[in-house]
C-alpha cells in the first residue's frame, strides 16, 4: 500500500516471482511530480536500471553554509545524479505491470486496518478502502511514507523529528557550473539544510528544509525561508535573478527509523518505516533498497509455504545488519539539528578537511573517518580555521566510538 518508490520497488521484486495477486493501492497519482527531483548515486541507478530517469550527473559536490564557509569535492567520474521522480515511478510501474499478477488502484486510499491475532500469529488482515471495498490479504506492505498508515493503526512509537523540505524547480537561471551539486547547512534558511541541484545551465532545483518535532508541514515558515534565500543567499541569488518557478516540490521526511518493521504479517518500508537516512534525509536509495529487501523476503517466505513472523523478520535482520549502527549513531546526534550557526560552520570546516572519498562515506553511510586527511590538500574557504579545526576534531573524535 503506497505507490511511491518503496511500494513500487517492493512490488517489483515480488511480481512474477510467486503465484500471488498483488494489489497496489495509491491514494493519489503514482509519480506525483510535486514530490521531488531528488539526488541519488549512479551505482543505485545502475543497480535498479533507472538511467532513463536521470536528469543530470555531477562531478563536483559542495557543502556550504549561508555564511559562505564551504567545502568542495571533485570526483573523476559522476558521483551523484538527480532524477525525474515521475519518470522513475513510471519506469518502475511499467515493469511491475509487465511482470503481471498486479492490479493497480490509484486515487484510492487505505482507510482502516483490521487485524485478528492469536497469541503467536496473525489470523486475518482486512483493509477498508476509500472506494468502500474491504479487502483481505495474506501480507500487507505499508509503504505509505510520512502518513504512517500501519504505525498509526498499530499505535507504534513514531519518529521524534521530521524534515519539511520546500523547494522550487526554476527555469531561466544563469548557472555557473551545472555539474556542481550543492547541499546547504546552517540555520539561516532552515535548520534542515538545503539544496541546489542544477539540471543544466538554465534550470535548477533550489530549496531548504525545516526540522521540527511535529509532522505538520510548516508551510509559511519554509516558504518564507526559501523566498529569503532566493533574495539574498550569494551566489545563488545572482544565478537565480529573473528565474521563473516551474513548480514547487515539498513534503515531509521522517527522521529516524521505527524500532521494528515487521508486525505479524504487516511489513513497513521506506519513509513509513523511517528509512530515509537521519543524517542527510536521503530517502530514494533506502526506499529502493528497503523495497527490494522486503519483497525478496516475502517471496522467500511464500516459497517456504509460511508467512510466519520468524521468516518475515529476515527483512528486519538484513536491514539491521547493514544500517542499524549508522542510524542509531545518527539518532544520538539528532540534537545537532538545533545547533547554532558557528557550530554548523565548524562542521563544514571539519568536512573541508576530508578527501572526496571520505566525504562520500559520510553522505551515504554516516561513516566518519578515523584518521585525518591532509588539510593542505583540501579547499578551505575561511580564515583562522586551524584552531577551530583542532577543536572540532577533538570534539568529534571524543564522540565517535568506532
Ligand atoms: C521536497 C523533497 C526533496 C527530497 N529530496 C531528496 C533527495 O534529494 N534525495 C533523496 O534521496 N531523497 C529526497 N527526498 C526524500 C524522498 O523523496 C523520500 O524519502 C522517498 O520518496 C520515500 O519514498 P516512499 O515510497 O517510502 O514514500 P513516499 O514517496 O512518501 O510514498 C508514499 C506513497 O504512499 C501514498 N499513501 C500514503 N497514505 C496512503 C494511504 N492511506 N493509502 C494509499 N496510499 C497512501 C502516498 O500518496 C505516496 O504516494 C526528498 C523529499 C522531498 C519531499
Uncertain residue segments: 373-402
Q: And the CATH topology of the largest domain?
A: FAD/NAD(P)-binding domain
Global structural class: alpha+beta
Shape annotation: globular
CATH architecture of the largest domain: 3-Layer(bba) Sandwich
Number of strands: 19
| Terminal-residue CA separation | 38 Å
Q: How many domains make up the 3D coordinates?
A: 3
Strand content: 15-25%
Helix content: 25-40%
Which homologous superfamily in CATH is the superfamily of the largest domain?
A: FAD/NAD(P)-binding domain
User: What are the bound molecules?
Assistant: flavin-adenine dinucleotide
Reading the helices and strands in chain order gives HEEHEEEEHEEEEEHEEEEHHEEEEHHHHH
Largest beta-sheet details? 8 strands, mixed
Rounded Rg: 22 Å
Amino acid at each position: 500500500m503506497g505507490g511511491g518508490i518503496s511500494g513500487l520497488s517492493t512490488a517489483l521484486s515480488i511480481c512474477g516471482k510467486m503465484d500471488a495477486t498483488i494489489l497496489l493501492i495509491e491514494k493519489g497519482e503514482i509519480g506525483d511530480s510535486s514530490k521531488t527531483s531528488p539526488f541519488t548515486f549512479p551505482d543505485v541507478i545502475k543497480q535498479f536500471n533507472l538511467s532513463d530517469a536521470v536528469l543530470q550527473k555531477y562531478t563536483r559536490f559542495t557543502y556550504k553554509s549561508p555564511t559562505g564557509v564551504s567545502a568542495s569535492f571533485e570526483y573523476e567520474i559522476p558521483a551523484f545524479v538527480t532524477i525525474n521522480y515521475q519518470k522513475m515511478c513510471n519506469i518502475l510501474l511499467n515493469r511491475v505491470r509487465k511482470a503481471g499478477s498486479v492490479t493497480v488502484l490509484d486515487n484510492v486510499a487505505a482507510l482502516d486496518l483490521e487485524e485478528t491475532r492469536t497469541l503467536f500469529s496473525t489470523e486475518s488482515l482486512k483493509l477498508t478502502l476509500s472506494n468502500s471495498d474491504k479487502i483481505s490479504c495474506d501480507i500487507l506492505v505499508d509503504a505509505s511514507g510520512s502518513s504512517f498508515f500501519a504505525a498509526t493503526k498499530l499505535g507504534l512509537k513514531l519518529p521524534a523529528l521530521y524534515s519539511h523540505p520546500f523547494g522550487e524547480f526554476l527555469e531561466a537561471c544563469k548557472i555557473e557550473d551545472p555539474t556542481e551539486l550543492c547541499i546547504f547547512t546552517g540555520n539561516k534558511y532552515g535548520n534542515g539544510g538545503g539544496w541546489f541541484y542544477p539540471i543544466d545551465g538554465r534550470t535548477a532545483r533550489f530549496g531548504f528544509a525545516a526540522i521540527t518535532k511535529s509532522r505538520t508541514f510548516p508551510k509559511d515558515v519554509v516558504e518564507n525561508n526559501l523566498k529569503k534565500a532566493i533574495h539574498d543567499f550569494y551566489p545563488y541569488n545572482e544565478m537565480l535573478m529573473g528565474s521563473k518557478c516551474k513548480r514547487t516540490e515539498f513534503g515531509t521526511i521522517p527522521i529516524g527509523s521505527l524500532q521494528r518493521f515487521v508486525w505479524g504479517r504487516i511489513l513497513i518500508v521506506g519513509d513509513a518505516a523511517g528509512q530515509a537516512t537521519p543524517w542527510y534525509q536521503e530517502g530514494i536509495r533506502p526506499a529502493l533498497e528497503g523495497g527490494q529487501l522486503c519483497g525478496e523476503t516475502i517471496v522467500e517466505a511464500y516459497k517456504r509455504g509460511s508467512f510466519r513472523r520468524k521468516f518475515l523478520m529476515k527483512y528486519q535482520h538484513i536491514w539491521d545488519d547493514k544500517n542499524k549502527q549508522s542510524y542509531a549513531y545518527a539518532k544520538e546526534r539528532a540534537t545537532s539539528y538545533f545547533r547554532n550557526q558557528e557550530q554548523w560552520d565548524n562542521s563544514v570546516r571539519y568536512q573541508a578537511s576530508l578527501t572526496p572519498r571520505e566525504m562520500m562515506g559520510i553522505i551515504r553511510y554516516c561513516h566518519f573517518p578515523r584518521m585525518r586527511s591532509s588539510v593542505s590538500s583540501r579547499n578551505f574557504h575561511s580564515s583562522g580555521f586551524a584552531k577551530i579545526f583542532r577543536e572540532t576534531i577533538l570534539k568529534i573524535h571524543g564522540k565517535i566510538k568506532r
